[in-house]
Specification:
Length: 179
């Protein structure tokens, strides 16, 4: 199939759409992010790209921690809501009807409705341009039965060029090509 060469852009797709929280149980923000990825296995590290103008940003800088909350498709509406307004003007917890839950390793609230909550402590911050990259070391993982077994029964939300999608069919386990 013929290919077009286009201008440089973040063409990587799909990417996960998650809810990231920062702050404390008393004062916090919950924001939708898609520039999120696993960076290292040992120690486990996750990177998130956040624009400095996001309300979430100052909570991460001040608290030195964030939580990646992996939503499932039943909470796609809340995910979209938290990516459409700023916590600077609106209490997004109330707007989205999401529930704060106490974490175990950081002061940052978890989103109770999310099957997986990954508590991270910021180890490095890189100012890349439009976004700051916060590199967080995972210090605790909370997973309900949907989030256990590596999230295989999870119904996660993927972000594809301005749209939310669910996963399709299982192709096979890693190594299936050699059997
Ligand atoms: C699907 C989706 C993904 C987003 N991903 C990011 C992201 O990775 N980084 C970012 O800075 N903003 C991202 N945004 C924008 C913020 O979620 C949005 O500006 C939000 O209102 C910021 O809220 P805050 O000011 O309370 O932090 C995304 C929005 C949506 C809807």
């Amino acid at each position: 199939m013929a290919k077009l060469v286009t201008a440089p852009s973040t063409a990587l797709t799909p990417v996960p759409a998650v809810l990231v929280t920062a702050g404390t149980m008393e004062s916090s923000d919950v924001t939708t992010l898609a520039w999120v990825g696993t960076l290292c296995s040992e120690p486990p590290m996750i990177g998130i790209g956040v624009r400095p103008e996001r309300w979430l940003h100052h909570f991460i800088v001040e608290g030195g921690a964030f939580v990646v909350n992996v939503a499932d498709a039943t909470h796609a509406r809340a995910l979209d809501l938290c990516g459409g307004v700023s916590g600077k003007d609106t209490d997004k917890w109330e707007l989205s009807a999401l529930t704060r839950e106490v974490g175990t390793a950081t002061a940052v609230p978890l989103v109770a409705e999310c099957p997986i909550n990954i508590e991270c402590v910021v180890r490095q911050t890189l100012h890349l341009g439009s976004h700051d990259l916060f590199i967080g070391e995972v210090v605790a993982v909370h997973a309900d039965e949907r989030g256990q077994a590596g999230g295989r029964v999870l119904d996660p939300v993927c972000y594809v060029s301005g749209q939310y999608w669910k996963l399709g069919d299982l192709i096979g386990p890693t190594g299936f090509s050699r059997t």
